[in-house]
């Protein structure tokens, strides 16, 4: 009777163990998706690649037109290229968001399967443990005395011992399943957050398109479509240099200053670093735009601790400033917050550059919220990023590195920043040329 019971338990346990060992098979099949899904994803990728190629073409047109003499035809062409590039970027972002949405749905389905599988594995393991306890309740003597065929008994006993040894492996498989599920959930949450932030950027791009279209209509209306009228408008602007000098230049984390003063700081930084003043102005302006959209944060909440919180307290202490009252940026989708002043340096980076800023600017200790120190800091970092090479491509790449670091600078999600900085640099270069003439 006992041998029969043992064999029954053994058979049930083998079935249970086989069920427990399914996760490896499940992992492979859980990743399988239908051919239609794969085909649709491939189509999205092809469309995205085509859009990116068109965006690069518009960027090339802009680069060429910017070098030409200012004219009605040229400036309208520049605006057209900017508008088209912005619209294409929005379409590309729509495709990225669409792909993310489909990926999120797929991951949700996979997570659901993992969860059900883990529950099933736990129940199967519980059954196996109950079977083990049932056998363990019999003594060896009872089992041996009840067994008429001793050799059969030991074969069964050895086999069951192997099953018991597999229990630990089953536990490890369950733990692996759990960790994989948590990783999938974490990835899903990150993608959802990124999707939301990409949508915000898309809305900002849409607003820029509207502004550019309005500017295009204004140019055509003012000039009545004739080159002579347009050249007259340009000359009138050049005569109004005083208005350009007095126009306020907005700064993040500091009081706005006249454009003439901003240009003075940018020029001083350019002399020390070799970076064009217009590019430095473009970076400062773009950082102010981003900061305005993101909002003001708190060093306690938005900074990465202790990487930035410790140097922040050190900086404010040496400057005699109250850390609770100093404005810093909120955490954004592309990284931690806590950036300081017009240059939007995070404290850990400011500490690295502090000595060079002081030496170049002659101001010790330098203050992140002081515009002249901020402009010098921007020039130094942009030079280190390669902007002093002076080419448009080098300046744009340096701007992307300013935002995202060297590793992430080539990611397409950040392209908007480099394009915005160069657009602003073009705008300020025209103002600089007017003042210079």
Q: Report the average pLDDT across residues.
A: 79
Oligomeric status: single chain
Overall structural class, as computed from helix and strand content, comes to mainly alpha
Cα separation of the termini: 109 Å
The tally of beta strands, per DSSP, is 4
Major beta-sheet overview: 2 strands, antiparallel
Q: What's the tally of helices?
A: 16
Order of SSEs: HHHHHHHHEEHHEHHEHHHH
Rg, please? 33 Å
- List unreliable stretches of 5+ residues: 1-32
C-alpha geometry:
flat
What is the count of distinct domains?
A: 2
Tell me the helix content.
Answer: over 70%
Q: Strand order of the main beta sheet, please? A: 1-2
What does it look like?
This protein folds into two domains: 2-207, no CATH class; 240-436, Orthogonal Bundle (Lysozyme). It is built from 16 helices and four strands. It has helices at residues 2-20, 23-30, 35-66, 72-136, 140-146, 150-223, 227-239, 241-246, 259-273, 277-294, 299-302, 309-318, 347-361, 371-384, 392-408, 415-436, and strands at 248-249, 257-258, 296-297, 328-329. The strands form two sheets. It has a two-stranded antiparallel ribbon. It has a two-stranded antiparallel sheet with strand order 3-4. Strand 1 (248-249) and strand 2 form a beta hairpin.
């Amino acid at each position: 009777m006992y041998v029969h019971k043992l064999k029954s338990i053994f058979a049930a346990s083998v079935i249970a163990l086989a069920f427990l060992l399914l996760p490896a098979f499940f992992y492979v099949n859980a990743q399988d998706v239908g051919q239609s899904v794969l085909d649709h994803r491939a189509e999205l990728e092809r469309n995205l690649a085509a859009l990116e190629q068109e965006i690069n073409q518009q960027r090339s047109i802009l680069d060429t037109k910017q070098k030409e003499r200012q004219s009605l035809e040229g400036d309208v062409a520049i605006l057209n290229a900017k508008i088209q590039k912005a619209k294409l970027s929005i379409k590309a972002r729509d495709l990225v968001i669409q792909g993310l949405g489909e990926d999120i749905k797929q991951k949700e389905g996979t997570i659901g399967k993992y969860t059900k599988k883990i529950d099933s594995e736990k129940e199967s393991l519980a059954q196996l443990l109950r079977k083990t306890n049932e056998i363990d309740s019999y003594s060896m003597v009872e089992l041996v005395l009840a067994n008429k065929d001793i050799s059969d008994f030991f074969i069964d006993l050895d086999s069951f011992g192997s099953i018991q040894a597999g229990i630990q492996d089953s536990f490890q498989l369950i733990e692996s399943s759990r960790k994989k599920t948590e990783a999938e959930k974490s990835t899903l949450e990150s993608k959802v957050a990124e999707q939301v932030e990409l949508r915000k950027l898309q809305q900002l791009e849409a607003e820029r398109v509207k502004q550019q279209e309005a500017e295009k209509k204004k140019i055509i209306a003012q000039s009545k479509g004739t080159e002579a009228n347009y050249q007259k408008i340009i000359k009138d602007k050049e005569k109004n240099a005083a208005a350009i000098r007095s126009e306020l230049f907005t700064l993040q984390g500091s009081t706005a200053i006249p454009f003439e003063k901003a240009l003075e700081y940018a020029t001083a930084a350019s002399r020390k670093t070799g970076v064009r003043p217009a590019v430095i102005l473009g970076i400062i302006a773009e950082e102010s735009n981003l900061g305005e959209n993101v909002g003001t944060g708190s060093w306690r909440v938005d900074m990465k601790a202790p990487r930035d919180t410790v140097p922040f307290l050190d900086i404010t202490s040496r400057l005699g400033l109250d850390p609770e009252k100093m404005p810093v940026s909120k955490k954004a989708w592309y990284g931690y917050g806590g950036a300081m002043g017009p240059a939007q340096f995070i404290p850990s980076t400011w500490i690295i550059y502090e000595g060079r800023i002081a030496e170049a600017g002659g101001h010790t200790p330098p203050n992140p919220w002081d515009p002249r120190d901020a402009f010098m800091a921007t020039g130094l970092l942009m030079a280190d990023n390669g902007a002093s090479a002076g080419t448009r491509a080098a300046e744009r790449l340096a701007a992307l590195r300013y935002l995202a670091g060297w590793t992430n600078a080539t990611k397409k999600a950040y392209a908007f920043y480099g394009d915005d900085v160069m657009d602003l640099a073009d705008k300020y270069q025209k103002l600089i040329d007017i003042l210079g003439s």
